[in-house]
Each structure stands twice: as structure tokens, then as C-alpha cells.
Amino acid sequence: MPRIRSFTKEDIPSVSGLHRRVFGVRNEYGGEDPTDLLQSSYSTYFDEVFLNNPWKDCATPSLVYEYEDGRIAGFLGVVPRRMVFDGSPVNVALSTQFVVEQESRSAGVGIRLLQAFLAGPQDLSLTDEANHPSRRLWEALGGRTALVYSFNWTRMLSPLDYWMTRIGRRAGATALVKPARPLTRLVDGLISKRFPDRFRPDGSDLVEQDLTAELYIELMQSLAGERRLKPACDAAAFNWLTGLLSRNRLLGDLRGVALNTPGGEPVGLYLCFIKPGGESTLVQLIARRKMEGRVLEHLFTDAWKSGSTAVTGRLDPQHSLVISEKHCSFACGAPWTLIHSQNRELIGAIDSGEALLTGMEGEMSIRFIPPDEPASPETHNNCP
């Protein structure tokens, strides 16, 4: 009979082939054939992320759906995470790369995989780059959508350049955008002079410091102390996560910054992909209460000076008022943040925005990066 079992190293060739076919992942030449480089990227990714992550736990493994003949028809990746809720440790299972072959979807393979995952021993099940079908399936099986963590914001810095780039990318005409950039930047300069409060950052007097693992842990303890749910930090986990993130060069260069007042008082930190000529993407921002605006303004200034057209990020509910004052636009859904737990207090803390759930805690840090291909949230959850 078909069975659901733990994912093993021997499954990597079959699962990577399934993932490649269903998501249409291209090789470094833009073709469909699985080149040696693409196969190597898959092998390294599945082994490092699902079999050898810093929190690996046999009680919450990644799952495969296997037919009697040994054929694998579905995969659900699981990365355990350690977090703290109201001062006590909790086990979190992060789901990603949920994929089922087309022919097996009507047989309920995806439903069975997700049921097996949600029935695990973890205190909280989480996924945060889910598509619409995944959201409907989670909710049908007792999960829920964390709406306050499903909003994204965008702060435009060069509006014409921003929209020209987006339109060119969607129309497959990115080669036409670059020659027009001198003109768009000239117009953007005029727009910024006309509306300086909306598009040009005010600047910052905060003092930067390189964000080491030790400093990150120290600042997390002092700046995120009021959050009811937050990650349990250690240097090995920080280095592992930032190492994975830094490989996603198409999002930009990962920049980690700790910020102090001119007098030396720590006030915040951020991890952000800075991308000249494109959108800078925030991974995580933490700030001392009532200092959120100054930390955000430093981030916007950093991106603006680097030539970014905009800064985008997931909304932290505790920063919502400050971000709205910074002329940011908001969008909700797809990707969705989905949660499941038997602990009502834990669910309540998330629903009320008292959790620290950022790109460091979610799927952004563990995306699969094909050779010379961008990582898209749509390639993480393909629910039947």
C-alpha cells in the first residue's frame, strides 16, 4: 500500500526531479534538462536544509508519499525551529517545498501529507509563503491564516524607475528598461524634489555597527524581550541562516547592521538585501520601542544611497503605525502566513501581533535557489 514516511538522503534524486518537473525549474541555460549543476544545487539544498539543519529532529522529519513500486508522488519539507513562548521553550515546525505530482492530486496525496505533518508533536506548525490552494487546504484541516503576518509593505524611492522595472520584468522586456534608466532617474529626481517627504528619506544620525552573531543575540535579548513568541537564538543558527540567505544574490547583497545613537545606545538592527537598481528586500528589523521610525528611516536612506528603487518587507504588526506614516503601500495575501496549534494562547499571541515572525524565522531564509534563477515564493507551496 502507499505510505507516508520520513524523507532520507536516498530520496533526494526522486524528490528533486519531482520538484523540478512540477515547478518548471530551469537549468542555468534556461532549458528543462537537469544539468549537473542543477542536480548538484538540488542535492546540496535538500541535504543541508532538511537533513542537516541546526535543529534537525527525528520527531519532526520531512515527509514523502511513496507508492508500492517505490515511486515518490509527494514531498513536504519540514525544518524544526526552537522558539520561546512566554518564557518557556516551544517546538515549531516550519513547512516548505510542499509539492505533489499532477497525476496524484485527485487521490488526496497532498491532503494526507499535510494531515501527517499537522499531527506531529510540534507545538506550532507554520508556513509563511503559501499560495491560495495551500491556504484553503490548511484551513480545511484545522489550520488558520495569520492575517496580521500576511501583509507586505513597499516604500518607493524612485517611483518611475520602480514601475518601469516591474512592468519590464512582467512583460519579458527587461532589456529595454536599462537604456531608459537615465531618463527615468532624471524624472524621478524631479518627482523627489516636488514630493520630498514621500520619496526621499530624511537621512539618519544613527551610527552603524557590523552585525555579528554575538551582537545579534545580545540585541535580540534586549530589543525583542517583550514579544510573547520569539526565536531562541544561538550563534550557530544565526550563521547558518545568514549563510543560506547570502547565497540569494539575485535579491541583492545581504546587509546586517546594528544601530546605535550618537551616544552609543543600541536602538535596533536590520538584515536586508540591498539591490541597486531594484527592490531592496527586508529580512528582519527589530527596534527599541519608540525608535522604530528612526531605524526604518536609516534603512530607507541606506537603500536610497545604494540606488534601490524601493524597499519592501513583511509587515511586523508592532511597526504598522510607524510604517504607515512613512508613505508605504500595503498588500495582503499570497504569500500567506498559515499556522496550526492546539495551544489557544499561542494562537492568540500570533493573532494579536505579539510574535516575532520575520524572514529569519520563515521560508525566506530556506528558499531553493536554482543556478542563475531568482527565488520566488510561488515555488515553495504547490498544494493539490
Describe what this molecule looks like in 3D.
By secondary structure, the protein is α+β, with helices and mostly antiparallel strands. It has two domains: about 5-150, Aminopeptidase (3-Layer(aba) Sandwich); about 150-155 and about 200-330, Gcn5-related N-acetyltransferase (GNAT) (Aminopeptidase), CATH 3.40.630.30. The protein has twelve helices and 16 strands. It has helices at about 10-25, 35-50, 110-120, 130-140, 160-170, 175-195, 195-200, 215-225, 235-245, 290-305, 320-325, 345-350; strands at about 5, 65, 70-85, 90-100, 125-130, 145, 150-155, 205-210, 230, 255-260, 265-275, 280-285, 310-315, 330, 335-340, 380. The strands form two sheets. Strands 1, 2, 3, 4, 5, 6, 9, 15 and 16 form a nine-stranded mixed sheet that branches. Strands 8-10-11-12-13-7-14 form a seven-stranded mixed sheet, sandwiched between helices. Strand 12, helix 10 (about 290-305) and strand 13 (about 310-315) form a beta-alpha-beta unit. The model has no long low-confidence stretch (mean pLDDT about 90).
